[in-house]
Structure to design on (241 residues):
């Protein structure tokens, strides 16, 4: 994928989450079953970085579970971050505006024993940008830490497949995007469009290897069929130089 197409796809999602961020947040008042499963394995004293924290619902659930260590949430959408800051008084969470597709992650100078990234990576176009993000995450993960994320498996749902739209509606050409790239519409409080990529297990395994990780666990969850989210847990590959 060329840089112009990559930039256009990033802009499609930027416009969506700026315009529909508040409406999107209102549809995300609870965490997904897969995320709830992950909560059970998170130690209360583990410093945590939540990449693409959205409206902060996951972090509020951490607080409800008695999490004690500092938590940092980052996202590029101001409407979502306005909701994210509504956390219990005294809970050690902070939030920062960060476009994770940017090369500059200097706003995150620390390392974390746990980094999460739920329902975010499928909005990242091009292998180049994905690898840059994953290497930034690798750099900020402790040697014995875990990176836990989920990716949307929308092609497993007939209902969601009906929301796939032709690229022409955002003045793009299907020939310019990569295999697995789709444009889906949004129908709540107006019509909008989001770019999403459906990952396969094989594709994610390759990305893990190229960014210095290894896949140590995965499972499917979410949706009426229980398989609309692919969850993976990665650790640093200790044998990779």
């Amino acid at each position: 994928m060329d840089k112009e197409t990559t930039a256009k796809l990033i802009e499609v999602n930027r416009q969506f989450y700026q315009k529909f961020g508040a409406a999107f947040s209102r549809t995300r008042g609870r965490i997904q079953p897969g995320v709830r499963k992950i909560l059970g394995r998170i130690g209360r004293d583990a410093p945590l970085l939540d990449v693409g924290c959205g409206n902060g619902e996951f972090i509020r659930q951490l607080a409800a579970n008695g999490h004690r260590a500092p938590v940092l949430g980052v996202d590029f959408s101001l409407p979502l971050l306005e909701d994210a800051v509504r956390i219990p008084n005294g809970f050690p969470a902070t939030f920062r505006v960060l476009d994770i597709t940017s090369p500059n992650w200097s706003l995150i100078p620390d390392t974390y024993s746990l980094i999460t990234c739920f329902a975010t990576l499928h909005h990242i176009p091009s292998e180049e940008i994905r690898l840059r993000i994953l290497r930034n995450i690798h750099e900020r993960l402790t040697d014995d830490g875990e990176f836990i994320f989920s990716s949307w498996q929308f092609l497993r749902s007939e209902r969601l497949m009906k929301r796939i739209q032709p690229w022409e509606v955002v003045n793009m050409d299907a020939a310019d995007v990569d295999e697995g790239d789709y444009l889906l519409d949004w129908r709540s409080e107006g019509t909008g469009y989001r770019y999403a990529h459906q990952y396969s297990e094989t594709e994610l395994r390759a990305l893990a290897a190229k960014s210095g990780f290894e896949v140590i666990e995965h499972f499917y969850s979410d949706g009426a069929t229980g398989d609309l989210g692919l969850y993976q847990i990665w650790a640093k590959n200790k044998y990779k130089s």
